[in-house]
Write a structure and sequence with these properties.
The chain is an alpha+beta fold. It folds into 2 domains: about 200 residues, Creatine Amidinohydrolase, Chain A, domain 1 (3-Layer(aba) Sandwich), CATH 3.40.350.10; about 250 residues, Creatine Amidinohydrolase, CATH 3.90.230.10. Helix content is about 35%, strand content about 20%. It has 11 helices and 17 strands. Strands 3-2-1-4-5 form a 5-stranded mixed sheet. Strands 12, 13, 14, 15 and 16 form a 5-stranded antiparallel sheet that branches. It has a 4-stranded mixed sheet with strand order 7-8-11-17.
């Protein structure tokens, strides 16, 4: 299958596409009445305009992110190997918009010649990978692809050859045993001895956001929030009729209608006065038993989308008004406010270079001192919903210090500030209620800020 290379868009074309998207995003929000503002849906660009933006980002990322990472890790060659439909997760994020998968065996090579010279990019593949990786293999001259790899390596004589190998992070472990064996055989003992783990290169590439991406990421978060707001309204939910499963599938259908991609099946669950507390496992399960939504229920949604190659992961809560009520009960509102305070505690504790485990432990100590019954389980977001980077707690074991949590927090990263607080609600016969929130935020190295605000009041059904 022959693939024509897509041209690299100019920076002016990228800027024009971004400005159009942002303008289309702001206009309906300014014109919408207060009661409808949460429903205002930013314009979803046609695929070609999306491709212009994404290919421009890719060019910029390859130009600025990869050199910084390779020099930080003192690696002078990085080799990535993927086979068609068996992509290394990192390779998949380096393919231009017209490549939906690798072709046959696709080998990408980065080489740092030193002395401040630009990083060399090569594709040892039948085809050039767009215009960002020119092909450096002519099968008619050298039929053996691995032998060509060995030739290029020998010509450049790298001292440290990074491969995507990791016992801790699946996203950084894209080199399969089969390809590893073939590469080592091709390199020979001398160069095989120079192989090192590219874990920090892979995680760094995936977690680092460039300025151009951050111009648009708030809009992506807004799209997710608009979807949630519409689903948690009388447009979708009729108490006594609509079930939690109905709402889950409405969200799934709505995401598809918009031309977006869900990276997990949405979950919708409820807590109700007079019922036995459900385990956290059941609260987060997408296949839990359907329950018909009733007046007085406290609802929770967990939803994640991908747009322009970037993911969201958002949790909100809603309250179904009883006859005569115009707002949620004060005790429930107090629980939501306490979850907001826990968000503040966690976010002000972010420090560059601190491990995710230490960040979680310090934040939990601060929460305990404030009298908050806290559970923290935040994580990075980016190309993947459960993104590359340190874990900040585990929802099912708050005492654990998992290996991914030992990785340091870095600047220019996006996070799902995911957590919950538990409170005993006297009006619910003392039942313990969970207040679960998850919002997308950016850490610039100094402070953490939400991309599209945060939930500070329940969605009310019906809206008031």
């Amino acid at each position: 299958m022959n693939e024509k290379s897509a041209c690299i868009p100019s920076r002016s074309a990228i800027a024009a596409a971004v400005l159009l998207m942002v303008a289309l995003f702001l206009l309906p929000r300014m014109e919408a009445g207060a009661a409808e503002r949460d429903f205002a849906m930013p314009a979803i660009l046609p695929l070609h305009e999306q491709a212009v933006i994404r290919d421009g980002w890719l060019q910029r990322r390859l130009d600025i992110v990869v050199p910084a990472l390779m020099r930080r890790e003192k690696v002078d060659m990085w080799i990535l190997v993927a086979r068609e439909y068996m992509e290394d997760p990192v390779v998949r994020t380096m393919l231009p918009s017209t490549w939906l998968s690798a072709r046959r065996r696709t080998i990408l090579v980065f080489h740092d010649p030193g002395s401040g010279k630009p990083i060399e990019r090569l594709a040892i593949a039948r085809y050039p990978v767009g215009e960002v990786f020119p092909s450096s293999w002519q099968p008619e001259q050298e039929p053996d692809q691995w032998r060509r790899v060995a030739q290029l390596v020998a010509e450049r004589d790298p001292q440290r050859i990074a491969l995507n190998l990791s016992q801790t992070f699946p996203l950084a472990d894209g080199m399969t045993d089969t390809e590893m064996e073939a590469l080592q055989s091709a390199l020979g003992p001398a160069y095989a001895a120079r192989v090192v783990s590219g874990e920090k290169l892979a995680i760094g590439w995936l977690e680092t956001r460039i300025a151009e991406e951050m111009e648009v990421y708030p809009l992506i978060s807004r799209i997710a929030n608009a979807i949630i707001a519409e689903g948690f309204s009388e447009r979708v939910i009729t108490p006594g009729v609509t079930s939690t499963t109905d709402v889950q599938w409405w969200y799934r259908q709505r995401i598809q209608q918009l031309g977006l991609t869900p990276w997990f099946h949405p979950t919708v669950a409820l807590q109700r006065r007079g019922t036995v507390e459900k385990s956290a496992t059941n609260m987060f399960a997408s296949n839990r038993k359907a329950e018909v939504i009733q007046a007085g229920d406290l609802l929770h949604v967990d939803l994640g989308i991908i747009y322009l190659g970037l993911a969201t992961d958002t949790q909100n809560m809603a309250y179904v008004l009883r006859p005569g009520e115009r707002d949620a009960p004060a005790e429930l509102k107090a629980g939501l406010a306490e979850a907001n305070r826990l968000q503040d505690i966690l976010m002000r504790n972010f420090r560059v270079g601190e491990s995710g485990n230490d960040l979680k432990d310090r934040s939990r100590r601060d929460a305990q001192a404030a009298g908050i019954r806290a559970n923290i389980y935040s994580h990075a977001v980016g190309f993947h919903g459960h993104g590359a980077g340190p874990w900040i707690g585990m929802w099912d074991d708050q005492a654990a210090r998992p290996a991914p949590g030992d990785y340091p927090v870095n600047e220019r990263t996006v996070w799902a500030i995911e957590l919950n607080v538990e409170r005993d609600i006297p009006a619910w016969d003392g039942r313990r209620v969970r207040f679960m929130l998850e919002e997308i935020a950016y850490f610039d190295g100094q402070s953490v800020n939400f991309l599209d605000g945060r939930q500070t009041a329940f969605h009310l059904i019906p809206r008031r």
